[in-house]
Amino acid sequence: MKFNIKSDLIHDISADIIILAVDDKNQIIQRPKIPAATLSLLSKIVNGNDLKQEVGSVTVVHGDITFNRVMLVRTGSAKQFDAEALIKIVGRVSNTISSLNVKKVLLPIEQFFNEHICANAGTEFIVRELINSSYVVNSLKTSKKPTPNIQTIIQYKGEALKEVKSGMLHGSAVADGANLTKDLGNLPPNICTPTYLANIAKDIAKRHGMKAKIFDKKQIEQLKMGSFLSVAKGSREAPKFITIEHNLGPKKQKPIILVGKGITFDAGGISIKPSPDMDEMKYDMGGAASVLGVMETIGILKLPINIVALIPSCENLPDGLALKPGDIVTSMSGQTIEVLNTDAEGRLILCDALTYAERYNPEVVIDVATLTGACVIALGHHATAIFSNHDPLADELKAASNISLDKAWHMPLWKEYEPQLNSNFADMANIGGRPAGSITAACFLSKFAKKYHWAHLDIAGTAWKSGKDKGSTGRPVPMLSQFLIKRSGLKK
Questions:
Q1: Would you state the CATH architecture of domain 2-156?
Q2: Does the annotation mark 273 as catalytic?
Q3: CA angle centred on 485, ends 134 and 240, rounded to 5°
């Protein structure tokens, strides 16, 4: 989908269809800018109840000599029209456009701005959702769905033109990053291997002037990442430790580090998972995919900030050499871990990456992982869980989730939960039992993040959808992108 901005009068712009908003009083919001004859025709249609009162309702009508076709969309009262309503409306508009044979869409964008939605945010949400809603999952189908090749002309003539342009850039960049995350998540595990992720990282770095370094098994051994390597033992796919550096901030600025869990397939190891829905364990690299998507976004935006991505990646499979329940492994930090369940492997690879992060003397570290089924029980599929050893950092992420509409919730990380990880034989166990499973998983990771401000995002409930709409969601790319944009000081 392509976008451009024009400041011409509405009736001077040629397009296959124009989108016009209608409020709860059956008033076409752009009526002062529409020719009288056209307005009279459209008013008769609206007052004839062809457009339902439900917010987001859409009807397409044939216009006149000025506009060949018109899409009327119900926005409701200005008081109730907020960003969430806008996202819903744009999704409905996008679905309708995709069902029509149109190539050029005219969108007067000012009709969607009000006291709740500024020009910058409104444009960003609209562009982001138009791209998001038009995403097509083709993967490896031989008969592919056509990718929409639609040009959207954003019409705006006003004082906030700079904000509209900024919103368009940010919305497109965030959506492109999220789409990369979706593409990676939706690939099958026989293609999206640790080596494949490493190659994607190198491609991102090359296109955006970043620095990528990929550590192979021998180099990971030299780093003494014993916990990470213990998970990789059961697979014939070589593990990779992927690093990407984006250094456009001041030289002395401490970097923000993003750590992504990159288990490209998780069978559970010796503690093997039940077979139903096991195919969805290709999404267990959702954290890595999200981090790569964010790096794509910040590369497009050229954020003036220093960011490092760290991705430990391997498979978790059963094998004669695989990690066994009862094994004790030594992490890069020197701390020993009794493995009581080999299906709690994400924390075993993340802990070594968190230790590796220390060498950067980071400003903050944020790990992203499809870590626990317990998180899905706690929050369902609506919100990402935020855990942190620094409440101001958690508050920043929560604020970013609110602004981006990529919902998240701050969960407790209290010392009272830590005894559940006690072990008679090692410094800690890798699981703490069924109670508060997502919290004890975060407590485990916190033991490796004591030297810096850290947050853990559990995206087990939000990284993908099951059922007829099965597929990667691209979350939490919008939230993390918003967090980094704010941290960079870049005005939107």
A1: 3-Layer(aba) Sandwich (3.40)
A2: yes
A3: 75
Q: Check residue 491 and give its pLDDT.
A: 57
Tokens of 90: 């744009």
Helix/strand/coil for 336: strand
Report the distance separating Cα 305 and Cα 299, nearest Å. Answer: 11
Q: Read off the pLDDT of residues 164-178 as tens digits, 9 standing for 90 and up.
A: 999 999 999 999 999
Active-site residue 347, yes or no?
yes
Interstrand relation of 428-429 and 471-472 (parallel, antiparallel or unpaired)? unpaired
Burial-class residue 463 by CB neighbours within 10 Å (0-12, 13-18, 19+). buried
Which DSSP letter does residue 311 get? E
pLDDT at residue 415, rounded to an integer = 96
Q: Convert the pLDDT of each residue in 461-484 to its tens digit.
A: 999 999 988 999 999 999 999 999
Beta partners for 259? 310, 367
DSSP code of residue 101: -
- Map tokens 């997502």 to a residue: 438
* pLDDT tens per residue, range 58-91: 999 987 777 889 999 999 998 889 999 999 999 9
pTM of the model: 0.96
**133, 43, 156, 15 alpha-carbon torsion, rounded to 10°:** 60
| Cα 181 versus chain centre, distance | 7
The predicted-structure confidence for 300-332, as pLDDT tens digits, reads as follows: 999 999 999 999 999 999 999 999 999 999 999
Query: Among 261, 347, 398, 475, which one carries the catalytic annotation?
Result: 347
Domain boundaries, the chain: 2-156, 177-488
Would you state the torsion angle of the CA atoms of residues 387, 390, 396, 397, taken in this order, to the nearest 10 degrees?
-20
CB 364 within 8 A of CB 393: yes
If 0-12 CB within 10 Å is exposed, 13-18 middle and 19+ buried, where does residue 157 land?
middle
Q: How many residues does the chain have?
A: 492
Q: Give per-residue pLDDT as tens, 231-277.
A: 999 999 999 999 999 999 999 999 999 999 999 999 999 999 999 99
SS3 171: helix
Domain 177-488 CATH assignment equals 3.40.980.10: no
Angle at CA of residue 224, ends 223 and 230, nearest 5°: 125
Structure tokens at 285: 């690299």
Task: Give the Cα-Cα-Cα angle 123, 125, 127 (nearest 5 degrees).
Answer: 65
Catalytic position from the list 104, 165, 202, 273: 273
Query: Which pair of tokens denotes residue 246?
Result: 């984006």
3-state secondary structure of 23: strand
DSSP state of 295: H
Q: Report the DSSP beta bridge partners of residue 155.
A: 6, 108
Q: Is there a contact between 377 and 441 (Cβ–Cβ < 8 Å)?
A: no
Share of the chain above pLDDT 90, in %: 85
- In this structure, what token pair is assigned to residue 256? 């923000």
Q: What does the pLDDT read at residue 32?
A: 87
